[in-house]
Amino acid sequence: MKKVWIYQADRFFTQPELETAQAQLRDFVAEWTAHGSQLAGNAEIKHNLFIILTVDEELAQATGCSIDKSVHMLKKLEADLQIDLFNRMLMAYRDVDGNIQLVSRDVFDALYKEGVINEDTIVYNNLIQSADELTTKWEVPFKDSWHATVFKK
To answer: In the chain, where do the E strands start and end?
Structure first.
């Protein structure tokens, strides 16, 4: 099984920031280990907003120490780029034109109550944990996400 961690930035990466982040992520994954064993890891940035780390746990299990290493690397990236990757109070969704929008929970709630965000609006479920979920449960309609249990009209 491939384990997945998704970190959503508090703003979109600029092109120079994207290149810096991709280089740092590439270097990190190349050296990422758990108890001396190389992890079969991967890192990518999707939509200039989401950092997605994966580890093939059939080859080597991610451990608390290896996860801590990834968080430490992401904290360094945050400092280098003046970006926040751990703000869980921001919601990402696709607007009617298909563009990704990033708003606070309060604004998201208001947009839902106003009908701007509806049952079919695509939202991002950054709580997923596996590669299978990444393909089936990450970008989903509001009605099929955890958002529907939290936000009510």
So the answer is: 2-8, 33-34, 37-38, 41-46, 50-56, 90-94, 100-104, 122-124, 139-141
Calpha distance 33→23 (Å, rounded): 18
What is the model's pLDDT at position 63?
A: 86
pLDDT at 117 over 90: yes
Global pTM exceeds 0.85: yes
- For the record, the structure tokens of 50 come out as 């989401």
The count of C-alpha atoms lying within 13 angstroms of the C-alpha of 51, restricted to the half-sphere facing its C-beta, is 31
Closest by CA position to 70, among listed 36, 109, 25, 122:
25
The model's pLDDT over 51-90, given as tens digits with 9 standing for 90+, comes to: 999 999 888 888 888 999 999 999 999 999 999 999 999 9
Distance from C-alpha of 25 to C-alpha of 47, rounded to nearest angstrom? 16
State the pairing for strand pair 122-124/100-104: unpaired
Pairing between β-strand 33-34 and β-strand 50-56 as defined by DSSP bridges: unpaired
For 37, half-sphere exposure in the C-beta direction (CA atoms, 13 angstrom radius) is 13
* CB-CB contact of 13 with 142 (8 Å): no
Terminus-to-terminus CA distance in the chain, angstroms? 37
